[in-house]
UniProtKB/TrEMBL annotation, chain A:
Belongs to the leucine-binding protein family. It comes from the Bacteria. Keywords: Amino-acid transport, Signal, Transport. It holds the Pfam family Peripla_BP_6. Residues 36-361 form the Leucine-binding protein domain. It comes from Azospirillum melinis. This is ABC transporter substrate-binding protein. SUPFAM superfamilies: Periplasmic binding protein-like I (SSF53822). Residues 1-27 form the signal peptide.
TrEMBL record, chain B:
The keyword Chaperone does not apply. It comes from Azospirillum melinis. Pfam families: BPD_transp_2. The chain crosses the membrane at residues 9-26, 32-52, 59-79, 85-104, 111-128, 160-180, 211-233, 239-258, 265-283, 289-310. It is found in: Cell membrane. The lineage of its organism: Bacteria, Pseudomonadati, Pseudomonadota, Alphaproteobacteria, Rhodospirillales. Keywords: Cell membrane, Membrane, Transmembrane, Transmembrane helix. It is a multi-pass membrane protein. This is Branched-chain amino acid ABC transporter permease.
Length: 392, 323
C-alpha cells in the first residue's frame, strides 16, 4: 500500500513537473519601454501617466499569469526633447518590444521619430497636436486627439445655450489649435466669440480678464491652457468678478488634485474628465483598474492614470496577439495594433492609417463641493449641471 | 620634446580617437553616440561663450539668443525656401551673427550690465519668433525639419553623420579661437583686458575688436544651433531659446576651464556624459544634484577648472622627483 502510494506520488510529481516545464517553455517575458517626463516642468503629468502604465502592467501580469509576464523599463526624459530621443534609443538598445508613454507634443515629436527609425511602436496619450499623426508614421499611435476635447467643450457650451463666449488660450500648438477649432465651430453656429491669446510666462491675468469683462461681456469664459494657467485666470476672475454664467476649461482641470489644492477657485468650474471624483466604476475592468491603482499607489485614479492604463493595455493585447500569430519578431506589431477595436475605459478605440483614434470623445465634469461630477454628455453623467454658477 | 610640439601631438592623437576611435567603438550604439552629440552641441556653445569672455572680456547670459536665431534661420531656410541643409546651417550662423549686430549698443556696458542686456535681447528674440507665426510656426514650432543629406552614399542624417558634423564644427571653432588668441588681435585683446584706456591710447580699436568677438561668438553659436535643429528635426521657441542653452555651456566651460581653449569641450563632455551615463542610472530622479555638488567642488578646489588641474599634476610630480 505504502509502495503504491509512493509510486503514485512519484508519477504525480513527474506529471506536474512535466506540465510546469511545458508551461515554462511556452511562457514569454515581454519588456516594454516607457519614456516619460518624471522631472522638469511636465513631471506631474508624466508621473500620472506612469502610474497608469504601472497598473496596466500589474493587471496584465495577473491576467496572463502562467502564460506571459510583462515588465516595463522607464526612463525619465527630464522634459527635454533631446533626452526623450536618447531615452528611446536607450530603450531600443535594451531590446524593448514597444514604447508606451510620452508627454508634450514637442517631446513626443522627436521621440516618436527616433522610435520610428528603430522600428518600434510608440503609443501615447500625451500629445494631441494634429501634426503628430499627419506625419503618417506607421509605428505611431495615440488614443486621444484635439477633436475629442473640442467636441466636448463645444457640446457643453451649446447645451448651456451660450450666445457670447470668451476663449482665453495659451499660445502653444495644442492649446491654440483647440481654441481655434472651438472658435470656428461656435462662430458657425452663430455664437459671438472673443479670442484672447496669452504667453506661457503670463502670471498676472488681470489685464486680460478686465478686457474680457469690459469688452466682451460674455456668457461663458472658456479656458484652454494648463494647471498653472487655470489657477492664474481664476484668481484674476475672482478679483474682477466678470458677470458670466460659467467658467469652462479642458484638460488638467476637473481633477481630484485641483479639487484638493484649490477648493475656493474650482467650485462650479467645468473641465474635461473621463472619471467622476470620487471614482465610481461599474464595469468589471474599471473596478479592477481602480482597485489595482489603489493597491499600488494608495489613492484613487485620475484621468492621466486612466489614459496611461488604456494605451498600455491595448499595446500589451497587441503584443500577445502578434506573438501568437508569430509576427512579433518580424515587425508585425504595428499591423496588429492597427487591428485594435476595443471598448476601453475611455470608450471605443480603433486606429486609422496614421495611428489616430477617431472615436475619441471626451466628457465634461464640474467641481461640486470638493467632488468632480460628470455632467456631459447626458448618457455618461452621474449628476446634474450646476448652472449658472461661478466660483466667486 | 618642447611643450608646443607635445601639445600638437596630443591634439592629433585626441582628434584621431575622436574621428576614428569613437565611430569604431560606438558607431553601433545610437544611444551613446546620441549622448556624445548632445554633449558636443553644448561644447560648441561653451567654446563660443568662452571666446567672448576670454577674448572679448564680456560675460554673456544670453547665448540662447544666438542658438535660437541660428536654429530658426536654418530650419526656415531649409523648410520654406528649399536651401540645402549644409548651406542653411552656415546661413544659420550668419543669421545669428547678423542678430548680434542689434546687440552692439550693449557693448558700451560692462560686467553684469552687459550680461543682463544680452539676456534681455534673448527674450526679445524669443518673443519675435513666437509672434512671427507664418514664418516660424509660432509657439507650436516646426516639426519634421529636413535632416542632413546623404553624400556619396554616407548618410549625414544618421547618428554617426551628425556626430562627425558637430565634432568638425566644435574642432573648427576651437582652432579658430586658438588662432585668434595667438594672433596680434589676441595680443591686443589681452592688453585690453589689463587696461582698455591704455590700449586705446596706443591706437587699438577696442570697440571694433569687442564687436568682432561678439559677432564671431554669435556665428559659432548660430551654426551649432542650426546643427541641432536639423539633428533633432524639431523646434519651438521655448526649446530653441531655452535658458539651458546658456546655463549648461557656462557650467561646462567653468568646469572644464574657461581660460583654456579645449577646457569648455572637455567640461561639456565630462558633465553631460558623466551625468547621463553614470549618475542618472544610479539616481534617476535627482542625478542633477550630484552634478551640482561636483561643479561646486570643482570651483572650490580648482577655480581654473579641470584642464588647468590636469596640467598642474605632472609639474607637481616633477617637483617631487627632483626633491
Amino acid at each position: 500500500m505504502t509502495r503504491t502510494l509512493a509510486n503514485l506520488v512519484t508519477v504525480s510529481a513527474l506529471a506536474l513537473s512535466a506540465a510546469l516545464g511545458a508551461g515554462t517553455a511556452q511562457a514569454k517575458d515581454f519588456l516594454l519601454g516607457s519614456e516619460l517626463p518624471l522631472t522638469g516642468s511636465l513631471a506631474r503629468v508624466g508621473q500620472g501617466m506612469h502610474e497608469g502604465i504601472s497598473v496596466a502592467v500589474e493587471m496584465a501580469n495577473r491576467n496572463y499569469a502562467g502564460r506571459h509576464s510583462f515588465k516595463v523599463q522607464t526612463i525619465d526624459d527630464e522634459t527635454s526633447p533631446a533626452k526623450g530621443v536618447a531615452a528611446v534609443e536607450k530603450l531600443a538598445g535594451d531590446g524593448v518590444v514597444a514604447i508606451t508613454g510620452g508627454y508634450g507634443s514637442n517631446i513626443i515629436g522627436p521621440a516618436s521619430e527616433a522610435a520610428q527609425k528603430a522600428g518600434l511602436v510608440y503609443i501615447t496619450s500625451g500629445g494631441v497636436s494634429p501634426e503628430l499623426t499627419q506625419r503618417g508614421y506607421p509605428t505611431f499611435f495615440r488614443i486621444n486627439n484635439t477633436d475629442g476635447y473640442a467636441l466636448a467643450m463645444i457640446g457643453m457650451l451649446q447645451e448651456m445655450g451660450a450666445k457670447k463666449v470668451s476663449i482665453v488660450y495659451l499660445n502653444k500648438d495644442a492649446t491654440s489649435s483647440l481654441a481655434k477649432q472651438v472658435n470656428s465651430a461656435l462662430t458657425a453656429k452663430g455664437v459671438t466669440v472673443g479670442m484672447h491669446e496669452f504667453d506661457g510666462s503670463t502670471s498676472d491675468f488681470k489685464p486680460l480678464m478686465n478686457k474680457v469683462k469690459l469688452q466682451d461681456r460674455p456668457d461663458v469664459i472658456a479656458m484652454v491652457g494648463y494647471e498653472n494657467d487655470y489657477v492664474g485666470i481664476l484668481r484674476a476672475a475672482k478679483v474682477l468678478k466678470p458677470q458670466v454664467k460659467a467658467v469652462v476649461g479642458v484638460w488638467s482641470l476637473a481633477t481630484a488634485q485641483m479639487a484638493k489644492e484649490f477648493p475656493d477657485l474650482m467650485e462650479t468650474v467645468y473641465g474635461t474628465s473621463m472619471l467622476p471624483y470620487p471614482v465610481e466604476f461599474t464595469q468589471p475592468e474599471a473596478v479592477e483598474f481602480a482597485a489595482t491603482y489603489k493597491k499600488l499607489f494608495n489613492k484613487d485614479p485620475d484621468y492621466l492614470g486612466q489614459f496611461g492604463y488604456v494605451q498600455t493595455r491595448l499595446l500589451i493585447d497587441a503584443v500577445v496577439r502578434a506573438d501568437e500569430a508569430g509576427t512579433l519578431a518580424k515587425g508585425g506589431l504595428p499591423d496588429e495594433l492597427r487591428k485594435t477595436d476595443a471598448n476601453t475605459l475611455i470608450g471605443r478605440v480603433t486606429f486609422d492609417r496614421n495611428g489616430d483614434n477617431l472615436n475619441f470623445t471626451h466628457r465634461m465634469g464640474q467641481h461640486q463641493g470638493g467632488k468632480v461630477v460628470l455632467v456631459w454628455p447626458k448618457d455618461a453623467a452621474n449628476g446634474t449641471m450646476n448652472f449658472p454658477a461661478v466660483p466667486w | 620634446m618642447s611643450n608646443p610640439s607635445m601639445n600638437r601631438l596630443l591634439l592629433i592623437a585626441v582628434l584621431a580617437v575622436a574621428y576614428v576611435g569613437v565611430p569604431l567603438l560606438f558607431g553601433g550604439n545610437a544611444y551613446v553616440l546620441g549622448l556624445i552629440v548632445a554633449a558636443l552641441t553644448i561644447a560648441g556653445v561653451a567654446v563660443a561663450w568662452a571666446l567672448l569672455g576670454n577674448l572679448g572680456g564680456m560675460v554673456s547670459f544670453g547665448h540662447a539668443a544666438f542658438f535660437g536665431v541660428g536654429s530658426y534661420t536654418s530650419a526656415v531656410l531649409a523648410m520654406k525656401l528649399g536651401v540645402p541643409v549644409f548651406a542653411a546651417m552656415l546661413l544659420g550662423g550668419v543669421g545669428a551673427a547678423v542678430s548680434s549686430i542689434a546687440m552692439l549698443p550693449a557693448l558700451r556696458l560692462r560686467g553684469p550690465y552687459f550680461a543682463l542686456a544680452i539676456l534681455a535681447y534673448a527674450h526679445i528674440f524669443q518673443i519675435l519668433t513666437t509672434e512671427m507665426t507664418p514664418v516660424t510656426g509660432g509657439a507650436g514650432g516646426l516639426l519634421s525639419i529636413p535632416r542632413f543629406p546623404k553624400i556619396l552614399g554616407f548618410d549625414f542624417g544618421e547618428k554617426l553623420g551628425g556626430y562627425l558634423i558637430v565634432l568638425t564644427v566644435v574642432v573648427l571653432a576651437a582652432l579658430a579661437y586658438d588662432a585668434i588668441r595667438r594672433s596680434t588681435w589676441g595680443l591686443a585683446l589681452k592688453a585690453m583686458h589689463d587696461t582698455e584706456v591704455a590700449t586705446r591710447v596706443v591706437g587699438v580699436p577696442s570697440t571694433h575688436l569687442k564687436a568682432a568677438m561678439l559677432v564671431l561668438s554669435a556665428f559659432i553659436t548660430g551654426v551649432v544651433g542650426a546643427f541641432n535643429a536639423h539633428f533633432i528635426s524639431f523646434l519651438d521657441p521655448d526649446y530653441a531659446f531655452s535658458s539651458g542653452w546658456t546655463v549648461l555651456p557656462i557650467a561646462a566651460a567653468i568646469f572644464g576651464g574657461y581660460r583654456t581653449v579645449w577646457g569648455p569641450v572637455v567640461g561639456a563632455l565630462a558633465i553631460y556624459l558623466v551625468d547621463q551615463l553614470l549618475f542618472k542610472p544610479i539616481l534617476p530622479h535627482g542625478h542633477q544634484m550630484i552634478l551640482g555638488v561636483l561643479l561646486c567642488a570643482m570651483i572650490l578646489l580648482s577655480p581654473g577648472g579641470l584642464m588647468p588641474a590636469l596640467r598642474r599634476r605632472p609639474v607637481k610630480e616633477g617637483r617631487h622627483a627632483h626633491a
